[in-house]
Design goal:
The structure holds 2 protein chains of 2 kinds. By secondary structure, chain A is an all-alpha fold. Chain A has 5 helices and no strands. Chain A starts with 7 loop residues before the first helix and ends with a helix. In chain A, 39% of the residues are buried. Chain B has 2 domains: 99 residues, no CATH class; 84 residues, Arc Repressor Mutant, subunit A, CATH 1.10.10.10. The chains are: A mainly alpha, B mainly alpha. At the A-B interface, helix 1, helix 2 and helix 5 of A face helix 2, helix 4, helix 5, helix 6 and helix 8 of B.
Protein backbone atom coordinates (compact mmCIF):
# COMPACT_ATOMS: atom_id res chain seq x y z
CA UNK A 1 0.00 0.00 0.00
CA UNK A 2 1.35 3.49 -0.86
CA UNK A 3 0.60 6.81 0.77
CA UNK A 4 -1.75 7.69 -2.09
CA UNK A 5 -3.91 4.61 -1.44
CA UNK A 6 -4.61 5.36 2.22
CA UNK A 7 -8.07 6.15 3.47
CA UNK A 8 -8.54 9.80 4.53
CA UNK A 9 -8.27 9.10 8.27
CA UNK A 10 -4.93 7.32 7.88
CA UNK A 11 -3.71 9.94 5.41
CA UNK A 12 -4.35 12.65 8.01
CA UNK A 13 -2.27 10.68 10.51
CA UNK A 14 0.57 9.67 8.22
CA UNK A 15 0.68 12.56 5.76
CA UNK A 16 2.61 12.09 2.54
CA UNK A 17 6.30 12.23 1.75
CA UNK A 18 5.81 14.91 -0.90
CA UNK A 19 8.02 17.98 -0.34
CA UNK A 20 6.05 20.75 1.31
CA UNK A 21 6.57 24.27 2.57
CA UNK A 22 5.76 25.34 6.15
CA UNK A 23 2.95 27.59 7.45
CA UNK A 24 4.97 30.81 7.32
CA UNK A 25 6.04 30.25 3.72
CA UNK A 26 2.50 29.24 2.82
CA UNK A 27 1.18 32.52 4.19
CA UNK A 28 3.87 34.48 2.34
CA UNK A 29 2.94 32.89 -1.00
CA UNK A 30 -0.79 32.30 -0.64
CA UNK A 31 -1.93 35.52 -2.35
CA UNK A 32 0.05 34.81 -5.51
CA UNK A 33 -0.89 31.12 -5.48
CA UNK A 34 -4.62 31.88 -5.37
CA UNK A 35 -4.38 34.49 -8.12
CA UNK A 36 -2.53 31.96 -10.28
CA UNK A 37 -5.23 29.35 -9.59
CA UNK A 38 -8.03 31.73 -10.49
CA UNK A 39 -6.23 32.76 -13.65
CA UNK A 40 -6.03 29.10 -14.67
CA UNK A 41 -2.23 29.18 -14.48
CA UNK A 42 -0.18 26.22 -13.20
CA UNK A 43 0.06 27.38 -9.58
CA UNK A 44 1.73 24.19 -8.39
CA UNK A 45 4.50 24.57 -10.93
CA UNK A 46 5.13 28.18 -9.97
CA UNK A 47 4.94 27.51 -6.23
CA UNK A 48 5.90 23.90 -5.50
CA UNK A 49 5.15 22.47 -2.08
CA UNK A 50 2.20 24.71 -1.26
CA UNK A 51 -0.47 22.23 -2.36
CA UNK A 52 1.13 19.47 -0.26
CA UNK A 53 1.09 21.81 2.73
CA UNK A 54 -2.61 22.54 2.29
CA UNK A 55 -3.29 18.79 2.37
CA UNK A 56 -1.45 18.45 5.67
CA UNK A 57 -2.48 21.67 7.43
CA UNK A 58 -6.23 22.20 7.99
CA UNK A 59 -5.79 25.80 9.20
CA UNK A 60 -3.86 26.95 6.13
CA UNK A 61 -6.29 25.01 3.94
CA UNK A 62 -9.23 26.94 5.43
CA UNK A 63 -7.51 30.26 4.76
CA UNK A 64 -6.73 29.20 1.20
CA UNK A 65 -10.40 28.31 0.64
CA UNK A 66 -11.52 31.62 2.11
CA UNK A 67 -9.14 33.77 0.06
CA UNK A 68 -10.18 31.98 -3.09
CA UNK A 69 -13.88 32.34 -2.25
CA UNK A 70 -13.52 36.04 -1.42
CA UNK A 71 -11.71 36.81 -4.69
CA UNK A 72 -14.32 34.86 -6.60
CA UNK A 73 -17.01 36.92 -4.89
CA UNK A 74 -15.18 40.15 -5.78
CA UNK A 75 -14.95 39.10 -9.40
CA UNK A 76 -18.74 38.84 -9.75
CA UNK A 77 -19.74 41.86 -7.63
CA UNK B 1 12.50 25.72 -3.66
CA UNK B 2 12.25 27.72 -6.88
CA UNK B 3 12.64 31.47 -6.59
CA UNK B 4 9.47 33.49 -7.14
CA UNK B 5 9.06 34.44 -10.76
CA UNK B 6 7.00 37.12 -12.37
CA UNK B 7 3.59 36.07 -13.47
CA UNK B 8 1.86 37.79 -16.35
CA UNK B 9 -1.05 35.33 -16.15
CA UNK B 10 -2.76 37.11 -13.26
CA UNK B 11 -3.01 40.49 -14.96
CA UNK B 12 -6.64 39.87 -15.83
CA UNK B 13 -7.49 39.49 -12.15
CA UNK B 14 -5.84 42.63 -10.86
CA UNK B 15 -7.79 45.84 -10.76
CA UNK B 16 -6.78 48.53 -13.23
CA UNK B 17 -3.44 50.03 -12.12
CA UNK B 18 -4.86 53.42 -11.24
CA UNK B 19 -7.45 51.86 -8.94
CA UNK B 20 -4.81 50.09 -6.87
CA UNK B 21 -2.39 53.01 -6.56
CA UNK B 22 -4.01 54.21 -3.35
CA UNK B 23 -1.91 51.79 -1.32
CA UNK B 24 1.23 53.79 -2.20
CA UNK B 25 -0.19 56.56 -0.01
CA UNK B 26 0.14 54.26 3.02
CA UNK B 27 3.77 55.37 3.02
CA UNK B 28 2.88 59.07 2.64
CA UNK B 29 2.25 61.64 5.36
CA UNK B 30 -0.74 63.66 6.51
CA UNK B 31 -4.15 63.57 4.89
CA UNK B 32 -3.13 61.32 2.01
CA UNK B 33 -1.95 58.66 4.45
CA UNK B 34 -5.06 59.01 6.62
CA UNK B 35 -7.27 58.48 3.59
CA UNK B 36 -5.25 55.46 2.50
CA UNK B 37 -5.40 53.94 6.00
CA UNK B 38 -9.17 54.44 5.95
CA UNK B 39 -9.35 52.67 2.59
CA UNK B 40 -7.17 49.84 3.92
CA UNK B 41 -9.34 49.41 6.99
CA UNK B 42 -12.50 49.19 4.88
CA UNK B 43 -10.87 46.52 2.71
CA UNK B 44 -9.74 44.49 5.73
CA UNK B 45 -13.11 44.78 7.43
CA UNK B 46 -14.78 43.42 4.30
CA UNK B 47 -12.48 40.38 4.35
CA UNK B 48 -12.80 39.85 8.12
CA UNK B 49 -16.60 40.00 7.97
CA UNK B 50 -16.57 37.57 5.08
CA UNK B 51 -14.51 35.08 7.09
CA UNK B 52 -16.35 35.46 10.41
CA UNK B 53 -19.79 35.06 8.85
CA UNK B 54 -18.56 32.20 6.68
CA UNK B 55 -17.50 30.33 9.84
CA UNK B 56 -20.42 31.42 12.01
CA UNK B 57 -21.62 27.82 12.28
CA UNK B 58 -18.79 27.17 14.74
CA UNK B 59 -19.99 30.06 16.93
CA UNK B 60 -23.75 29.48 17.34
CA UNK B 61 -23.74 31.22 20.72
CA UNK B 62 -22.74 34.60 19.25
CA UNK B 63 -25.22 37.18 17.99
CA UNK B 64 -24.69 39.00 14.70
CA UNK B 65 -23.50 42.04 16.64
CA UNK B 66 -20.94 39.94 18.51
CA UNK B 67 -19.76 38.35 15.27
CA UNK B 68 -19.39 41.81 13.77
CA UNK B 69 -17.39 42.93 16.80
CA UNK B 70 -15.07 39.95 16.24
CA UNK B 71 -14.66 41.01 12.61
CA UNK B 72 -13.81 44.57 13.66
CA UNK B 73 -11.18 43.26 16.09
CA UNK B 74 -9.69 41.08 13.36
CA UNK B 75 -9.63 43.97 10.87
CA UNK B 76 -7.90 46.20 13.42
CA UNK B 77 -5.22 43.61 14.13
CA UNK B 78 -4.80 42.93 10.41
CA UNK B 79 -4.32 46.65 9.72
CA UNK B 80 -1.48 46.75 12.24
CA UNK B 81 0.15 43.73 10.56
CA UNK B 82 -0.26 45.13 7.05
CA UNK B 83 1.19 48.53 7.98
CA UNK B 84 4.09 46.85 9.78
CA UNK B 85 4.85 44.59 6.82
CA UNK B 86 4.33 46.96 3.89
CA UNK B 87 7.94 46.35 2.88
CA UNK B 88 7.11 42.67 2.26
CA UNK B 89 4.69 43.54 -0.55
CA UNK B 90 6.54 42.86 -3.80
CA UNK B 91 3.69 43.24 -6.25
CA UNK B 92 3.55 39.49 -6.97
CA UNK B 93 -0.23 39.68 -6.49
CA UNK B 94 -2.59 42.63 -6.36
CA UNK B 95 -2.32 44.67 -3.17
CA UNK B 96 -5.94 43.86 -2.43
CA UNK B 97 -5.27 40.12 -2.44
CA UNK B 98 -2.13 40.55 -0.38
CA UNK B 99 -3.98 42.62 2.23
CA UNK B 100 -6.98 40.30 2.30
CA UNK B 101 -4.92 37.36 3.50
CA UNK B 102 -3.95 39.24 6.68
CA UNK B 103 -7.60 39.88 7.54
CA UNK B 104 -8.60 36.29 6.75
CA UNK B 105 -5.80 34.98 8.97
CA UNK B 106 -6.72 37.22 11.91
CA UNK B 107 -10.41 36.46 11.56
CA UNK B 108 -10.02 32.71 11.18
CA UNK B 109 -7.70 32.48 14.20
CA UNK B 110 -10.13 34.51 16.31
CA UNK B 111 -13.06 32.33 15.25
CA UNK B 112 -11.20 29.10 16.04
CA UNK B 113 -10.01 30.33 19.42
CA UNK B 114 -13.46 31.61 20.34
CA UNK B 115 -15.07 28.33 19.28
CA UNK B 116 -12.66 26.33 21.45
CA UNK B 117 -12.50 28.77 24.38
CA UNK B 118 -14.46 26.58 26.77
CA UNK B 119 -13.51 23.18 25.36
CA UNK B 120 -11.06 20.80 26.95
CA UNK B 121 -8.02 19.76 24.95
CA UNK B 122 -6.22 16.52 25.78
CA UNK B 123 -2.70 17.67 26.48
CA UNK B 124 -1.42 14.56 28.23
CA UNK B 125 0.34 12.55 25.54
CA UNK B 126 -0.24 9.25 27.34
CA UNK B 127 -4.02 9.69 27.08
CA UNK B 128 -4.01 9.25 23.33
CA UNK B 129 -5.54 5.79 23.39
CA UNK B 130 -8.64 7.26 25.07
CA UNK B 131 -9.43 9.50 22.12
CA UNK B 132 -11.25 8.62 19.00
CA UNK B 133 -8.88 6.56 16.92
CA UNK B 134 -11.31 4.04 15.52
CA UNK B 135 -8.73 1.71 14.00
CA UNK B 136 -9.89 -1.07 11.71
CA UNK B 137 -13.58 -1.66 11.15
CA UNK B 138 -15.39 -5.02 11.02
CA UNK B 139 -15.24 -5.04 7.22
CA UNK B 140 -11.51 -4.40 6.94
CA UNK B 141 -9.27 -7.17 5.65
CA UNK B 142 -6.31 -8.62 7.52
CA UNK B 143 -3.81 -6.34 5.77
CA UNK B 144 -5.76 -3.21 6.70
CA UNK B 145 -6.13 -4.42 10.28
CA UNK B 146 -2.38 -5.01 10.46
CA UNK B 147 -1.73 -1.54 9.01
CA UNK B 148 -3.89 0.05 11.69
CA UNK B 149 -2.07 -1.92 14.37
CA UNK B 150 1.28 -0.76 12.97
CA UNK B 151 0.02 2.84 13.15
CA UNK B 152 -1.10 2.40 16.76
CA UNK B 153 2.22 0.85 17.69
CA UNK B 154 4.03 3.66 15.88
CA UNK B 155 2.12 6.32 17.80
CA UNK B 156 2.96 4.46 21.02
CA UNK B 157 6.63 3.76 20.40
CA UNK B 158 8.10 5.79 17.54
CA UNK B 159 7.13 9.32 18.60
CA UNK B 160 8.45 11.59 21.33
CA UNK B 161 5.82 12.57 23.94
CA UNK B 162 5.67 16.06 22.42
CA UNK B 163 5.18 14.72 18.90
CA UNK B 164 2.49 12.34 20.17
CA UNK B 165 0.76 15.21 21.96
CA UNK B 166 0.61 17.37 18.83
CA UNK B 167 -0.37 14.55 16.47
CA UNK B 168 -3.14 13.30 18.75
CA UNK B 169 -4.54 16.77 19.45
CA UNK B 170 -4.50 18.05 15.87
CA UNK B 171 -5.29 14.88 13.91
CA UNK B 172 -7.30 12.67 16.25
CA UNK B 173 -9.06 15.30 18.36
CA UNK B 174 -9.36 17.90 15.61
CA UNK B 175 -7.99 20.71 17.75
CA UNK B 176 -7.17 23.68 15.49
CA UNK B 177 -3.44 24.20 15.40
CA UNK B 178 -3.80 27.85 16.48
CA UNK B 179 -5.78 26.78 19.55
CA UNK B 180 -3.16 24.20 20.47
CA UNK B 181 -0.39 26.74 19.92
CA UNK B 182 -2.09 29.20 22.26
CA UNK B 183 -2.47 26.57 25.01
CA UNK B 184 1.10 25.35 24.66
CA UNK B 185 2.60 28.84 24.43
CA UNK B 186 3.89 28.11 20.94
CA UNK B 187 2.99 29.19 17.41
CA UNK B 188 1.41 27.60 14.36
CA UNK B 189 4.60 27.21 12.37
CA UNK B 190 6.54 25.53 15.19
CA UNK B 191 3.70 23.10 15.92
CA UNK B 192 3.24 22.28 12.26
CA UNK B 193 6.93 21.43 11.97
CA UNK B 194 6.51 19.10 14.95
CA UNK B 195 3.44 17.53 13.34
CA UNK B 196 5.36 17.11 10.09
CA UNK B 197 8.23 15.37 11.91
CA UNK B 198 5.78 13.14 13.79
CA UNK B 199 4.13 12.06 10.55
CA UNK B 200 7.50 11.33 8.97
CA UNK B 201 8.53 9.14 11.93
CA UNK B 202 5.20 7.38 11.90
CA UNK B 203 5.43 6.70 8.15
CA UNK B 204 8.94 5.33 8.59
CA UNK B 205 7.75 3.05 11.40
CA UNK B 206 4.81 1.76 9.36
CA UNK B 207 7.01 1.31 6.27
CA UNK B 208 9.57 -0.63 8.31
CA UNK B 209 6.73 -2.90 9.44
CA UNK B 210 6.10 -3.66 5.77
CA UNK B 211 2.64 -2.11 5.49
CA UNK B 212 3.42 1.08 3.61
CA UNK B 213 5.62 1.77 0.62
CA UNK B 214 7.48 5.04 0.82
CA UNK B 215 6.94 6.81 -2.52
Amino acid sequence: MTGRDLDPALLRLLGTDEPEIDCDECFAKLDRYVELELAGAPADTHIPGLRAHLVGCPACAEEHESLRALLELDSVS
Amino acid sequence: MAAPDTNPDVSALAAAPGLEDWHLDLRAQGTRREEAVGHLHALLLRAARFEVFRRRGSLPQLSSAELDELAHDAAGDAAISVLRRLGDFRGESSFRTWAYKFALLEASVKVRRRAWRDREVTLEPERWEDVAYAGPGPDDDAETAALHEAVREGIRTALTPKQRQVLVAVVLEGVPIDVLAERLGSNRNALYKMLHDARRRLRAHVAASGYLEET
